[in-house]
Amino acid sequence: MTWTPHATVAVVVEDADGRFLMVEERSSGRIVFNQPAGHVEEDEAILDAVRREALEETGWEIEPQHFLGLYTYKAPANGVTYYRFCFIGKARQHVTDELDKGIIAAHWLSLEDIRQLGNKLRSPLVIRSIEDYRNGRCFPLEVIADTQT
């Protein structure tokens, strides 16, 4: 069996009221919460994947502002290793209510609300990335050398 890593993107978006853009979705028979996130498609630039996933899952156009970090997570449910390129983004405008299959709704939640979700979070990376963001972690987008753009 050949090991194949999974490249994903995610984006932390905070509004002026200190709330974070979150996605309520169905995953493996459970309802969970996550940042806007998903797999990078073949021949897709990383930053384009961030914009696309946010729009498809929340209906919001976002613009990546900074790179937050690369996170590795091996999901206990399926044993798959995910490499999560996480960004900090700014919400530009809400443009649609039509969301991807499996997405229940997009929400703006406070950090306290997110913490109270506990085991309803898709992975420990949800809180970890928000905490890294709140602790001032950020890198310029230029650290992503993407030949697709």
What is this entry, summarized?
Keywords: Hydrolase, Magnesium. With 149 residues, the chain is α+β, with helices and mostly antiparallel strands.
Write the layout of secondary structure elements.
Layout: E1 6-13, E2 20-27, E3 30-34, E4 37-39, H1 46-58, E5 60-74, E6 81-94, E7 103-109, H2 111-116, H3 125-134
Parallel strand pairs: 1-6
Antiparallel strand pairs: 1-4, 2-3, 2-7, 5-6
Keywords:
single chain, 149 residues, alpha+beta, Nucleoside Triphosphate Pyrophosphohydrolase, four-stranded mixed sheet, three-stranded antiparallel sheet, 19% helix
Protein described:
19% of the residues lie in helices and 40% in strands. The protein is built from three helices and seven strands, in the order ββββαβββαα. The protein is globular, with a radius of gyration of 15 Å. The longest helix has 13 residues, at 46-58. It has one domain (6-142): Alpha-Beta Complex (Nucleoside Triphosphate Pyrophosphohydrolase). The chain has 149 residues and is an alpha+beta fold. The protein has a four-stranded mixed sheet, with helices on both faces. Strands 3-2-7 form a three-stranded antiparallel sheet. It has helices at residues 46-58, 111-116, 125-134, and strands spanning 6-13, 20-27, 30-34, 37-39, 60-74, 81-94, 103-109. A hairpin with a 2-residue loop joins β2 and β3 (30-34). Monomer. It is an enzyme of class 3 (hydrolase). Belongs to the Nudix hydrolase family. NudJ subfamily. Its EC number is 3.6.1.-. Keywords: Hydrolase, Magnesium.
